[in-house]
Each structure stands twice: as structure tokens, then as C-alpha cells.
Amino acid sequence: MSEIHTTSIATPTRRDFLFVATGAAAAVGTAATVWPFISSLAPDASTIAAGAPVDVDLAPIAIGQIVKVFWRGKLIFVRRRTESEIAEARATPLSELIDPQTDQERVKPGHAEWLIVFGNCTHLGCVPLGHQGPYDGWFCPCHGSLYDTSGRVRRGPAPLNLPIPPYEFLSDTKIQIGQNASG
User: Fold this and answer.
1) Which of 1, 30, 88, 92 is the most exposed place for a label (fewest CB within 10 A)?
2) Residues 162, 77 contacting (CB under 8 angstroms)
3) CA 176 to chain CA mean position, Å
4) Has this prediction a pTM greater than 0.85?
5) How far is CA 119 from CA 5, 14, 26, 86, 127, in A?
6) According to the 3-state scheme, what is the secondary structure of the chain?
7) Residue range of the domain that includes 85
8) Which tens digit of pLDDT belongs to each residue from 124-147?
């Protein structure tokens, strides 16, 4: 007697569905478990903010304008000074200053129009207002400290000038504040 072979098309069974569903659930579960480990390899925002340098494009800043930027979570004022502001700051006798420092010591050589300073009052850390007071520098409304256009304290309880952050000119229209900058 000869054998006859027949083929039949199998219809999907409930068991086939359970195998596919279990495999899909296992793949999603594995991905959900592995993803936190992979994402932990990238530095978090606080690490980046803690020391990443900040590049500032100076080209759009108008003469006389003060721009605020943040580096390491701290406020930085970038001020493009006018010729008269520079001349007045340089003509100020050091004997009139609470924290004597020349204007030339507070800017980079060849870039006198650019003043880059931390934006917190040296008394209690308040944020002073720009283009205020008799020196057209900064005025701290909390306790009355006055700074000139070079960020030097002129009156009030603040004991020190606005500090200079570490920065360098990358070109005539770009600065880098931070890690690679020389203070």
C-alpha cells in the first residue's frame, strides 16, 4: 500500500497568540528595564550646568546695552559700554573707590567696550538694576549699593566690586565664559 502525504494549512491557535503576546511583552519589559541604564551614561543637566562653558555672540548687542546670561547657574552681565562710559570709568580717581581697581584691570586688553561681570551685589547677593544711579552703572534696590560702568562699588554696604568671571575672546564678536577661559 502506498502512503499519501497531504499538507494542510494550519490555522492560528490560541497557543500561537500567547507565544507572540508573551514575546512582545518580554521585549517591551527588557527595553523598559535597560533604558534607565543606558540613559544614565549621559551627563545630567546639573553636571553640564556645573562647568560647561557658555559661548556668547556679541554681534547683536547694541552699544550701551546690558545682556544677561547664565553660567554655572549664576547671573552674568555682558555690557557693551559707550566711549563716554569708558572715559568716565578711566578718569575716576582710585581714592574715590571702596574697592580700588582701575578700569583697565576689569576688561581684556583691546576690548575696553566689553565689561563682563557677575550679576549679583557683593553685599547680600541681590540682583542690581542696570543703567541706574548717579554713575549710570548698577543700583541694588535692596540695600542701596551703587556700582559704576566698570562694575566698581561706589556707595552702599557692598564691600567689593562686581566680580569678573573667567572668560576669553574667541573672536572680536564672540566670548567664552567658563572652563577653558583664562581669568
Assistant:
1) 1
2) yes
3) 10
4) no
5) 89, 69, 53, 19, 6
6) CCCCCCCCCCCCCHHHHHHHHHHHHHHHHHHHHHHHHHHCCCCCHHHHHHHCCEEEECCCCCCCCEEEEEECCEEEEEEECCHHHHHHHHHCCHHHCCCCCCCHHHCCCCCCCEEEEECCCCCCCCCCEEEECCCCEEECCCCCCEECCCCCEEECCCCCCCCCCCEEEEECCEEEECCCCCC
7) 47-177
8) 888 998 998 899 999 998 888 999
- The reply to whether 32 falls in a domain is no
Report yes or no on 6 lying in a domain.
no
pLDDT in tens, 167-179: 999 999 999 998 6
End-to-end alpha-carbon separation of the chain, Å? 100
Q: In what order do the strands lie in the sheet with 74-80?
A: 66-71, 74-80, 114-118
Here the CATH number for the domain that contains residue 124 is: 2.102.10.10
Classify residue 153: in a domain, yes or no. yes
Q: Which residues contact 122 (CB under 8 A, 6 or more apart)?
A: 145, 153, 158, 159, 160, 161, 162, 163
Domain count along the chain: 1
Q: Let me know if residue 154 belongs to a domain.
A: yes
